[in-house]
Design a protein that fits this description.
The protein has 106 residues and is mainly α. The protein is 52% helix and 0% strand. The protein has one domain. The protein starts with a helix and ends with a helix. Keywords: Secreted, Signal. It comes from Pseudoatta argentina.
Length: 106
């Protein structure tokens, strides 16, 4: 049984290799240009479209007075904010700062 199965598989692989190698495929035809010259837009219209796209790409700020305010102009520093956040985190922690209750000590 075993030699018949090996012979059958070998024959089947040979047929598949011959069938695949005999197939021919043509490449997709290459066109010189997909741009339709009849529908070409005018140069002025093209430049106008480019200028519109460049304005969209880098929008101008309408109000330059307003910017990103990190609190530095009001005297509120980053280290002060960090201390505040650390204090809030410590206050929410069970073993954080604060008066100890006598019931917890016993």
């Amino acid at each position: 049984m075993q030699p018949k199965m090996i012979a059958l598989c070998t024959l089947l692989m040979f047929v598949v290799v011959v069938a695949v190698s005999s197939l021919t495929a043509d490449a997709i035809p290459r066109h010189e240009s997909y741009w339709d010259q009849q529908d070409d837009i005018a140069r002025d219209e093209f430049l106008e479209i480019l200028s519109r796209l460049s304005r969209i790409n880098r929008p101008e700020m309408e109000n330059n007075k307003r910017g990103l305010d990190l609190g530095l102009n009001r005297g509120y520093s980053g280290s002060q904010a960090a201390k505040h956040m650390m204090g809030l985190a410590a206050a929410n922690y069970a073993g954080g700062p604060g008066r100890r209750r006598r019931s917890e000590q016993a």
